[in-house]
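It would be a great kindness if you could assist me with a short task in structural biology. I am sending you one protein, given as its amino acid sequence and as whole-number tokens for its backbone shapes. I would ask you to consider whether the tokens describe a fold that such a sequence might reasonably adopt. The full record is reproduced below for your convenience.
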Amino acid sequence: MISYEAVLRQINLVPAGTTGDNRAITWLTDAKVVGIARNSRGHLELFLAGEELRPRTGVVKSAMHYHSWYRDSLPPLNANRICLPALGHFDQVGAFIAAELLREKADENLERAFAVTEPLIEIAIKRLEISENAILGLVGELLLLDALCCSAADPQVGSVVQAWDGWRRSTRDFTWEGTGVEIKATTRATSSHAIHSVHQIEPTPACDEAPGESRLLLVSIGLKQTDFNVSAISIPSLVESIKSRLVTSGANGLVVDFLKRVSMYGSESGIGYDHVTMANEAPFTTLFNVTFVRSYDMADQAIEVLRRDDLAAYQHVDAQSLTFRIELPATISINNPIAGARRVAKDILGLGS
């Protein structure tokens, strides 16, 4: 039986497809039931040759596609393809899934092996999706922090970096002189974001212990994964830019603390980016183009979302436990949202446009 280590070694040798939908499948055994390939963007795919499989879970169902794959000088291949989440290669997870399928004798009875392995496949894909969301979140937060550092005067840069709280569990991603900033990143074409409790879309009220927030801005950042491009950004490039700005502004004493905070972002999701040792590692080297940056003033009543007052009548509902998705239009009013990273950063810092 082929081992996890042997599968991983084979995966490491699989080349990316040349263009479009072209790809070369490497079969892991002579039975040619479980295969591995990379698409033209380098993302790992698992091929399970045979009859169409029927996943029981929604997570696996959405990741699996059944198709007839055409081959030069060979009959079409009927196979189920499992597409792993898009960011990075995630080779170890792919190797784990393939090794488990083979351990359950997929070569002899693919349907049975898949049924037994599906719960593990579901857990693995969910884990990848959590990591993917954490990576997108880190890119979005670093993008805005970089824009803030570029807009701030030299004496302010150190304070700006220290005002970033998104690296840990906190009520707000960034706070500056009474302005709370909630940062949301998406690969969708619109400002569509998951909201975890109403505190993410309403200013924190004042109390005896804290002054509260005078306003809350939800900064929506659109990202699109891209191939090499001189204007593209990545986690390492953004970290390096902020680090350089700290040095040139005279706040070089904060560099070590900043890098430590970056490394702690998403640690609960298993990403943990260490700039010194991981700047050349996937998935952190993934390149993105920025499709939009929009700052929504959430006090605008024209933004029709759930608010605390809407839930007040439901005394048996914990408002902080609610999770829902908001779909914000590109335009609410003439000044809402503010668009563009530079303009958004200047507005947060109270510098005008």
User: Anything to note?
Assistant: The mean pLDDT is 89. The chain has two domains: 4-108, 132-348.
